[in-house]
Write a structure and sequence with these properties.
By secondary structure, this protein is α+β, with helices and mostly antiparallel strands. The protein has three domains: 50 residues; 126 residues, Acyl-CoA Binding Protein (Up-down Bundle); 39 residues. It has eight helices and four strands; from the N terminus they run H-E-H-E-H-H-H-H-H-H-E-E. The strands form two sheets. The protein has a two-stranded parallel sheet. It has a two-stranded antiparallel ribbon with strand order 3-4. Helix 4 packs across helix 5 and helix 4 packs across helix 6. The protein starts with a helix and ends in a 6-residue tail after the last strand. One of its GO terms (molecular function) is U2 snRNA binding. It comes from Photinus pyralis (Common eastern firefly). It holds the Pfam family PRP8_domainIV. This is PRP8 domain-containing protein.
């Protein structure tokens, strides 16, 4: 961790002032003290801790990076842009989400992830890129497949019905945060809610009555078709 802090400080010192970060987020609390010591000359850079288990080590499963490490004969600092040229067409938030999806999927199942990222030989990776070159529409399809791969793996390992997970739990799983497994009761509630959304059928009920004057009154009401309540 001290070596990591030294390398981070060396990288920041090598950058022009306008390119130096305003904030650093560490993914291991043990790095806080070493970084604060190494960055004492940079009082304007705030250092924040997080409990996210981000799978950056999965990047080593990318052939381009793995081969470079295997061929290395001496220590050296190498900079890579893990966003390739994504920021030309998408926001930094979307780019970060896509990167974490890729890395988490590579961490969960490297072989399946690589097949998703490169389904056939027509998909190429430019020499100066890390990831395959695709349109934003194709990336959306791939992100969905990677998300399903991650969630299915989580569901099998924790005996959880994936469809019962909330959107915030899905996000936490992908980011690597610890979450408690959904209770059986909540899973059942989620399944009922899903059934109701799928059915979305309206049943019309027509009632004919007479008032005190002998006039016919016809009333038609509609309600959601429900087979179960929770």
């Amino acid at each position: 961790k001290w070596k990591t802090a030294e390398e981070v400080a060396a990288l920041i010192r090598s950058l022009p002032v306008e390119e130096q970060p305003k904030q650093l987020i560490v993914t291991r609390k043990g790095l806080l003290d070493p970084l604060e010591v190494q960055l004492v000359d940079f009082p304007n850079i705030s250092i924040r801790a997080s409990e996210l288990q981000l799978p950056f080590q999965a990047a080593m499963k990318v052939e381009k990076l793995g081969d470079m490490i295997l061929r290395a004969t001496e220590p050296q600092m190498v900079l890579f842009n893990l966003y390739d040229e994504w920021l030309k067409t998408i926001s930094s938030y979307t780019a970060f989400s896509r990167l974490i999806l890729i890395l988490r999927a590579l961490h969960v199942n490297p072989d399946k992830s690589k097949l998703i990222l490169r389904p056939d030989k027509t998909v190429i990776t430019h020499e100066h890129h890390i990831w395959p070159s695709m349109s934003d529409e194709d990336w959306i399809k791939i992100e969905t497949q990677l998300r399903d791969l991650i969630l299915n793996d989580y569901g099998k390992k924790n005996n959880v019905n994936v469809s019962s997970l909330t959107s915030s739990e899905v996000r936490d799983i992908i980011l690597g945060m610890e979450i408690s497994a959904p209770s059986l009761q909540r899973q059942q509630a989620a399944e009922i809610e899903k059934q109701q959304q799928e059915q979305q059928q309206l049943t019309a009920v027509t009632t004919k009555t007479q008032n005190v004057h002998g006039e016919d009154i016809i009333v038609t009401t509609t309600s959601q078709f429900e087979q179960q309540t929770f």
